[in-house]
User: Which sequence fits this backbone?
């Protein structure tokens, strides 16, 4: 995995902020998210559900619901800040450079179009292929993600596929043009482990083939451990810890990361209560001014209530946003 | 970096989630507010008007026939007079009540009956669906005018009978619309969920199908509101509508049609009243559609600039 | 598909019978045509003779039985008014109505789809407001008004179009179609807009954008087809309204269609023609409904094959 | 409330369930003679390939679909024979958490309405109490009381799932069928939810049918596991037994495909071939098209292999 | 259709827009307005025609006639007349036509309209001479026969024909159902050739559209315009022999009280109605027939409205126990005449003002007929029916037998005295007849008061400045194409 290209950064997110214009007022759902992915590598984005992972991914591809708005930060892909691009500029990137697999697999396919047509669309849009040529490409792609009889299935409709197959079709659509950066938002949640294994293999293959950078959003720590190179842990709209997977998993430096890892059922004694981080994340309308994790943190002090820790790099390729990084890393 | 800025915010108690009342949501949409005011005025006119104008709506004065609108003939001359010298203003006011008391019950009846049957048919599917659809087919392919002529000649042209006919003829519209959407909704998982804890069909329809189908039905109903007023006008034209000396906007339009060239105000003003009422109703229905849909409600509350936003399209 | 069609046709036959029965009975409830067709001074014997000649002296059941027997042989009786075979009269009048309805609906649908989509693209925006307002105003203008104003303004004052009539080139179609158009157009704009607002916020629209699809492609390629179902239902109902006769237009513009024929035969108690006309339009409406069902199936495969592996 | 015999040990007993769907002219057998038994206070895990019929089984148990064949008994009642009041009383005892947190919540209802709906149906709590109980439930599943007035669209995927769980808990059922209840949740919340479920089981004796893809979760919560493949239960037994000493090759493949946090696990067994179409499943052993041990013999119906009295499998070549 | 584009210059073709398409052109139905408008004296001709202005009978296909006995009439048939299909017209054809129209089972409208049920005896003495015998003496047989349009022997006797052959100045060239009827000039016509080689009829039921067509030059003439569409440039008014009145059901309280009926007559402000609603195109009426009809009483003058007098009468009736509060139904027919609905409202309002309780019921033709003809509907309470009576025959006998006899088909009630007067008058002719009928009308007004008169109506005929035509009282029922010529006078 140590190709020469590994140092080139494919995607870097700096200080991304997303506001939600809800009827109750403006809420900051994503606050100061920064991470970077290198070519050919996989970054896993972990975090409590509702912490803003999907919003982050959607703001990178510029497909936020209208209620949400990016209010700060930068997203660099190959030297350009995609947040500053206009609509047409984004369209050019969407597909060949940057693509996304959405979390909601069952509804993400257009129910009234044959899946083949939807799969061929990237080729038609970006490569200007003829209908027939695009079809050939699409059929090949379907075969690639393991759809049996792709030729015959080209004309089938989404409802005629099982959840797992639909998820694979979505992935196929996202990787069709071999994007530089792929954002995968819980791509295998609906799948059983055997299919999940197939898909992950497919992603790794494509990744090494095309030097694709992948941002993998998931809750499955085991999957992260097997699949990802780096990990970014989010909590309440903030990235609280980043670093190489093994190191973070073996030696978490943020209390939340630590709590998360402790909750893995695999580690727990059968029948015993699973250790869970007590409490729940702060409400978006009442994010504390200090550390966002303070209310649930076993280590919290007065300092945590006043001062928000920044994500500080610690030199060894890791970064943590905690006042107690030192203590934790020593532990 | 933001730590200091956030300080005051944190000092406050957790912001209570603000639920907008309907009034507030209405206030957020200026068009809808105006529409609501117009409708309110129409209703007010219908209720209080007759009491204000006395017998002005029927008081004839053949010597004052076809006076154009002017300020010279007092308040009731403002909008001119009709061919019998009756004040058009007074008649408009008087007609508001009749018009609403025909159109509103007619629309409501067909809306309630049609949608109930439609949702019932769509929810259950199977033979109930086929039956309901075939009944709708029969009603639809029946010339409603024939029905009107029969009922009104056999049972006299009372307002109740007019309501009956107009309502009956429009039932299929709601029935078909409600059925189409309900048939799709019945396969949704949340309907299954309701069934798992034993919710019967009617409560399910009421809780789950109705709120989703209703916006569409409301849109159709407001369009129908206009249709019913115009139909009532056509019935008047055939002499089986509202009987004089009662007067409705539809009747005024139908009778005033002949004077389009010579005395425009007789037909145009009630026409404008119809248009204003229906357009207001539609605007209000469009507003209700947004306000009733949690996924769209923000369009009313968000800053102006964002209301028309489209996902993923940089404004 | 074939079985589907066969089942639909069979299940349509029964309502058709109801329509025939209903019209037959209702028509006879409107009263006796004898007075209309005999001179005012006709004697009792003459009236009896007339009634006997047309079967009005028999019980309604007997009349119905005879009529059904005739209909099965495709004999719809003779018009009291003109003495012509009713079936023939109806068939002569029907194409004019059908043409008018077809062209009108075509324009209404295309126009409403464009404008409705435009309005839905940015809900509550100025464009949306203007489109909704105009379309609604159009829908609530009484059609006879619009028609007469059209005649006076475009026919007489501006001298651009013929006032009325059917023979002539494309220009004779303009006013009738414009009159017929306003309501379906206004209604459809509203319906398409409503459906498109929903469709445009669906997840697959986001997916399409993530592929770099242009907005045109997103709106017309992806969202529109999903929004077609409700629009189709309403468009079907509107078409049925037109097929049932565009009475006002036919009356004002002297368009020899089925609507005018039907009204006249109701007012003239010309039962044979009325029955034939209703039967024909009912058959057309049933065919139309089947066509709409087929359209549903074409647009949305889920209707066609509910689930497959 | 109608008290049905609660002393009989199995809460649920299903035998020989068959369910076929008509797809065009063909028949798709989603369930092919499935037996299932859940004891009081027991958690039974159900694992298997996607599309093998797990959700269908759940739907049959919840009477959302009628089986073509086979019997379902809850205690000593056959729910399919119940009507009116009795049916309603039965409904209260069995609840379900749905697989898809997006589709199973009505977008037009607030969280409070959704969670409170069962009470509306059963005319349970007074409206005033309902709010309090909704808050309680929300906090129980790790949401906030303040979320009661939010709509599903305002929640993330995981948060939605928790609303679904809260709804299933509202009526204090005897049995909850959980169709992928935690797959959308992050580990910490997952832990909270699993703990909650376990606690309810301890305190109230609730039984669970726990459908999941996440084997580590199943292993943690389930007392017994059933492994399904293409509409048939191919292996069944106590969790540890099944996980550690699988009988059926498919179970083994499943176990080995599951990712683990410990990186040094053995090479996974890679299955070749595609899942066969349920429209025409292979004859005999249904797994034979993908099985590395398959022989000609596998084309005949496989025998029942009993590793011990409680652990059985269906295979010609047990491991 | 080659005429299609001919909407421009007018030219050879006279373009006429009717209110409705003729249901048929069968000549024996020509007493129907729709049919007669096109057929009468254009396609077919009768033996005798009545001058609508003077009421005098003029020879047409019959050159002379005389009563040879009380029940026998002899007619001289014009020679040298041929039908449009080339056959000569003889007494044989005349006998055939009368037999077909009056004695057959065709149930022609003329049959019941102008003839009663007794058969006519027909005898062809020679090709030029026809004898007609009646069962009872019939002094106005020639007048009746003026409604019978002559057709050739070859015409179908078993069924009505839609497109007849006649002797008239025009022949049917083309009838496009629903669209138009085209007539061409009959070059073998026995009389003077008409001005226009071709005539094209179309139909529009909206008066404003018909007016627009004249204004635009799409049509040269139009039937019945509404007052608001008519201007001096596009139309001419003509008295059309129609009289409007309220027929009061004197068999029902409170209308059974003659004071109430007279009060109704007093309450109506006829002059105002005429001026405002009919735009002056009418005359206030005091009897059922207009001037020019035999029996018209020129001593009867419409009374000016006298609300106080009317109220007084009603009060008196009330004091005598008449239930004046009982609801009276005022029945009128849509399209009966222009602004009929408004007229009904004026009547209702006026009657309300004198203390009567009136409800309006607007009906269609068929329903109106139910009220108009015996047997009258029961259980509908007292009815005031708005009638419009047109005496096209020009003789009061047609009016009295229908409207004034106590058992007349269109009469609610009468008195024995009036019945006797009518029976006697019917046997008279000449001045005696005139005087007898004039007395009858005076008697009705004074002693019976079944009718509260409104107005003698006028028709409005749309006419472009490019044509010249002088309408007459019969123009509402027939339009003689031969009398129309281009305004500049140069026929083509
Ligand atoms: N339309 C919306 N209206 C209000 N709040 C919203 C909306 N969309 C998202 N949010 C809030 O924003 C936060 C972040 O949501 P997001 O979908 O990014 O979470 P996530 O990290 O993807 O969670 P999960 O893992 O459960 O999918 C959540 O608290 C959610 O409640
Ligand atoms: N209503 C239906 N009509 C036809 N086929 C159906 C229907 N419902 C389910 N099926 C089919 O039955 C089979 C079993 O489906 P089921 O949803 O039970 O699978 P599952 O095991 O729950 O899968 P997953 O793990 O993906 O949720 C599938 O092949 C599916 O396509
Ligand atoms: Mg998410
Ligand atoms: Mg499932
Ligand atoms: Ni930058």
Assistant:
């Amino acid at each position: 995995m140590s190709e020469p290209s590994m140092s080139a950064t494919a995607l870097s997110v700096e200080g991304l902020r997303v506001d939600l214009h809800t009827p109750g007022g403006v809420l900051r759902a994503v606050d100061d998210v920064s991470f970077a992915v290198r070519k050919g590598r996989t970054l896993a984005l972990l975090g409590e559900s509702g912490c803003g992972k999907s919003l982050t991914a959607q703001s990178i591809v510029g497909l936020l619901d209208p209620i949400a708005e990016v209010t700060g930060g930068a997203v660099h892909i190959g030297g350009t800040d995609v947040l500053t691009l206009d609509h047409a500029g984004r369209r050019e990137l969407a597909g060949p450079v940057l693509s996304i697999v959405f979390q909601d697999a069952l509804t993400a396919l257009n129910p009234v179009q044959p899946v083949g047509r939807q799969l061929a669309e990237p080729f038609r849009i970006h490569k200007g292929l003829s209908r027939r040529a695009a079809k050939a490409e699409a059929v090949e792609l379907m075969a690639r993600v393991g759809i049996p009889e792709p030729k015959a299935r080209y004309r089938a409709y989404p409802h005629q596929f099982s959840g797992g197959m639909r998820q694979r079709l979505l992935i196929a659509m996202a990787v069709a043009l071999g994007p530089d950066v792929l954002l995968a938002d819980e791509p295998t949640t609906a799948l059983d482990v055997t299919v999940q294994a197939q898909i992950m293999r497919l992603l790794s293959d494509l990744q090494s083939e095309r030097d694709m950078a992948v941002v993998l959003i998931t809750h499955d720590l085991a999957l992260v451990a097997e699949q990802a190179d780096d990990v970014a842990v989010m909590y309440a709209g903030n990235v609280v810890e980043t670093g190489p997977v093994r190191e973070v998993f073996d030696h978490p430096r943020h209390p939340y990361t630590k709590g998360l890892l402790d909750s893995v059922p695999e580690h727990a004694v059968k029948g015993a209560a699973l250790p869970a981080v007590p409490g729940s994340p702060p409400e978006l309308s009442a994010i504390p001014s200090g550390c966002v994790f303070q209310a649930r943190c076993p280590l919290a002090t007065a300092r945590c209530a006043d001062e928000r820790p920044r994500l500080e790099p610690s030199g060894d390729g890791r970064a943590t946003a905690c006042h107690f990084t030192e203590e934790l890393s020593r532990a | 970096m933001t730590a200091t800025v956030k300080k005051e915010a944190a000092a406050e108690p957790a912001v209570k989630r603000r639920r907008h009342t309907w009034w507030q949501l209405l206030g957020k949409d200026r068009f809808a507010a105006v529409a609501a005011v117009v409708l309110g005025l129409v209703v007010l006119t219908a209720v209080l008007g007759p009491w204000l104008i006395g017998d002005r709506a029927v008081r004839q004065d053949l010597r004052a026939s076809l006076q154009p609108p002017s300020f010279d003939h007092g308040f009731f001359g403002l909008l001119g007079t009709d061919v019998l010298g009756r004040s058009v203003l007074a008649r408009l006011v008087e007609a508001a009540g009749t018009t609403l008391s025909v159109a509103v019950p007619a629309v409501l009846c067909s809306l309630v009956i049609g949608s109930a049957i439609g949702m019932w048919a769509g929810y259950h599917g199977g033979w109930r669906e086929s039956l309901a659809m075939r009944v709708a087919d029969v009603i639809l392919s029946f010339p409603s005018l024939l029905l009107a002529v029969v009922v009104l000649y056999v049972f006299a042209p009372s307002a109740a009978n007019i309501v009956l006919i107009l309502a009956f003829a429009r039932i299929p519209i709601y029935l078909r619309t409600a059925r189409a959407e309900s048939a799709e909704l019945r396969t949704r998982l949340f309907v299954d969920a309701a069934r798992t804890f034993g919710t019967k069909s009617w409560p399910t329809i009421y809780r789950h199908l109705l709120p989703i189908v209703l916006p569409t039905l409301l849109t159709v109903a407001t369009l129908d509101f206009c249709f019913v007023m115009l139909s009532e006008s056509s019935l008047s034209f055939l002499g089986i509508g509202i009987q004089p000396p009662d007067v409705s906007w539809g009747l005024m339009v139908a009778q005033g049609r002949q004077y389009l060239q010579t005395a425009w105000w007789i037909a145009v003003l009630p026409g404008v009243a119809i248009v204003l009422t229906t357009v207001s109703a539609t605007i209000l229905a469009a507003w209700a559609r947004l306000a009733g849909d949690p996924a769209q409600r923000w369009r009313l509350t968000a800053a102006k600039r964002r209301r028309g936003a489209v996902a993923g399209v940089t404004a | 598909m074939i079985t589907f069609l066969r089942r639909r046709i069979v299940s349509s036959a029964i309502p058709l019978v109801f329509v025939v029965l209903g019209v037959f009975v209702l028509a006879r409830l409107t009263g006796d045509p004898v007075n209309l067709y005999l001179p005012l001074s006709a004697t009792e014997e003459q009236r009896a003779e007339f009634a006997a000649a047309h079967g009005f002296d028999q019980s309604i059941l007997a009349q119905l039985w005879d009529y059904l027997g005739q209909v099965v042989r495709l004999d719809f009786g003779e018009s009291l008014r003109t003495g012509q075979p009713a079936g023939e009269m109806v068939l002569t009048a029907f194409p004019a109505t059908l043409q008018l309805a077809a062209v009108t609906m075509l324009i209404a649908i295309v126009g409403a789809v464009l404008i409705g989509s435009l309005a839905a693209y940015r809900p509550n925006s100025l464009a949306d407001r203007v489109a909704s307002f105009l379309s609604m105003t159009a829908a609530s203008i009484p059609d006879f008004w619009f028609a007469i104003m059209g005649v006076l303004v475009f026919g007489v004052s501006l001298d651009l179009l013929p006032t009325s009539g059917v023979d002539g080139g494309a220009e004779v179609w303009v006013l009738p179609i414009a009159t017929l158009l306003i309501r379906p157009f206004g209604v459809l704009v509203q319906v398409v807009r409503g459906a498109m607002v929903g469709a445009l916020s669906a997840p697959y629209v986001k997916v399409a954008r993530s592929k770099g699809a242009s907005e045109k492609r997103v709106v017309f390629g992806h969202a529109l087809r999903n929004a077609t179902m409700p629009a189709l239902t309403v468009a079907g109902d509107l078409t049925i309204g037109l097929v049932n006769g565009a009475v006002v237009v036919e009356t004002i513009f002297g368009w020899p269609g089925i609507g005018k024929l039907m009204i006249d035969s109701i007012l003239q108690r010309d039962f044979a023609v009325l029955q034939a006309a209703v039967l024909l339009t009912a058959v057309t409406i049933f065919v139309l409904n089947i066509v709409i069902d087929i359209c549903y199936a074409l647009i949305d495969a889920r209707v066609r094959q509910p689930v497959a592996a | 409330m109608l008290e049905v015999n609660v002393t009989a040990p199995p809460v649920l007993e299903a035998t020989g369930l068959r369910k076929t769907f008509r797809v065009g002219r063909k028949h798709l057998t989603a369930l092919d003679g499935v037996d299932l038994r859940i004891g009081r206070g027991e958690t039974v895990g159900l694992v298997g390939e996607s599309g093998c019929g797990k959700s269908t089984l759940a739907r049959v148990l919840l009477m959302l679909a009628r089986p073509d064949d086979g019997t379902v008994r809850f205690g000593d009642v056959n729910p399919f024979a119940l009507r009116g009041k009795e049916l309603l009383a039965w409904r209260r005892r069995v609840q379900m958490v749905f697989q898809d947190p997006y589709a199973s919540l009505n977008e037009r209802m607030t969280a409070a309405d959704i969670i409170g709906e069962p009470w509306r149906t059963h005319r349970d709590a007074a409206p005033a109490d309902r709010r309090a109980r909704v808050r309680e439930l929300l906090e129980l599943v790790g949401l906030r009381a303040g979320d009661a007035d939010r709509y599903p669209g305002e929640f993330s995927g995981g948060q939605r799932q928790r609303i679904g769980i809260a709804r299933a808990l509202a009526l204090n059922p005897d049995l909850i069928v959980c169709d992928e209840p935690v797959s959308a949740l992050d580990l910490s919340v997952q832990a909270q939810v699993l703990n909650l479920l376990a606690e309810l089981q301890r305190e109230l004796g609730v039984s669970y049918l726990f459908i999941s893809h996440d084997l580590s979760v199943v292993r943690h919560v389930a007392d017994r596991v059933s492994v399904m493949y293409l509409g048939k239960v191919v292996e069944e037994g106590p969790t540890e037994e099944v996980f550690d000493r699988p009988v059926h090759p498919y179970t083994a493949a499943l176990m080995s495909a599951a990712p683990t946090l410990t990186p040094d696990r053995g090479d996974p067994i890679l299955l070749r071939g595609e899942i066969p179409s349920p429209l025409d499943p292979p004859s005999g052993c249904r797994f034979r098209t993908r099985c590395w041990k398959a022989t000609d013999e596998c084309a005949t119906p496989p025998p029942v292999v009993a590793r011990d009295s409680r652990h059985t499998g269906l295979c010609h070549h047990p491991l | 259709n080659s005429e299609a584009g001919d909407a421009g210059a007018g030219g050879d073709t006279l373009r006429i827009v009717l209110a409705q398409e003729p249901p048929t052109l069968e000549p024996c139905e020509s007493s129907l307005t729709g049919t007669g408008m096109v057929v009468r004296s254009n396609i077919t001709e009768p033996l005798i025609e009545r001058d609508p202005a003077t009421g005098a009978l003029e020879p047409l296909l019959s050159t002379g006639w005389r009563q040879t006995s009380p029940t026998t009439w002899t007619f001289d048939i014009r020679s040298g007349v041929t039908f449009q299909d080339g056959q000569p017209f003889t007494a044989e054809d005349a006998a055939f036509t009368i037999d077909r129209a009056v004695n057959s089972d065709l149930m022609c409208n003329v049959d019941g309209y102008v003839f009663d049920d007794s058969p006519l005896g027909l005898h062809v003495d020679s090709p030029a001479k026809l004898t007609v015998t009646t069962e009872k003496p019939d002094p106005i047989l020639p007048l009746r026969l003026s409604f019978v349009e002559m057709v050739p022997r070859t015409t179908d006797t078993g069924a009505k024909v839609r497109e007849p052959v006649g002797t008239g100045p025009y022949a049917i060239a083309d009838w496009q159902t629903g669209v138009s009827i085209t007539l061409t000039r009959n070059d073998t016509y026995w009389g003077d050739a008409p001005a226009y080689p071709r005539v094209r009829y179309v139909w529009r039921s909206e008066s404003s559209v018909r007016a627009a067509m004249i204004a635009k030059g799409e049509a040269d003439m139009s039937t019945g315009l509404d007052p608001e569409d008519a201007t001096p440039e596009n139309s001419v008014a003509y008295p059309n022999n129609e009289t409007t009145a309220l027929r009061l059901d004197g068999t029902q309280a409170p209308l059974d009280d003659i004071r109430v009926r007279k009060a109704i007559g007093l309450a109506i402000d006829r002059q105002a109605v005429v001026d405002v609603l009919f735009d002056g195109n009418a005359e206030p009426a005091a009897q059922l027939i207009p001037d020019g009809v035999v029996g018209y009483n020129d001593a009867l003058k419409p009374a000016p409205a006298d609300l106080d007098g009317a109220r007084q009468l009603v009060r008196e009736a009330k004091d005598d126990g008449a239930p004046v509060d009982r609801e009276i139904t005022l029945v009128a027919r849509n399209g009966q005449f222009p602004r009929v609905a408004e007229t009904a409202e004026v009547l209702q309002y006026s009657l309300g003002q004198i203390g009567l309780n009136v409800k309006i019921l607007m009906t269609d033709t068929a329903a109106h007929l139910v009220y108009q003809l015996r047997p009258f509907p029961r259980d509908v309470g007292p009815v005031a029916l708005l009638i419009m009576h047109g005496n096209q025959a020009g003789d009061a006998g047609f009016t009295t037998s229908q409207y004034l006899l106590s058992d007349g088909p269109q009469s609610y009630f009468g008195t024995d005295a009036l019945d006797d007067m009518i029976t006697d008058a019917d046997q008279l002719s000449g001045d005696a007849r005139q005087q007898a009928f004039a007395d009858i009308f005076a008697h009705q007004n004074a002693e019976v008061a079944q009718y509260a008169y409104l107005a003698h109506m006028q028709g409005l005929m749309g006419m472009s400045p490019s044509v010249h035509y002088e309408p007459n009282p019969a123009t509402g029922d027939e339009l003689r194409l031969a009398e129309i010529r281009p305004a500049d006078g140069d026929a083509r």
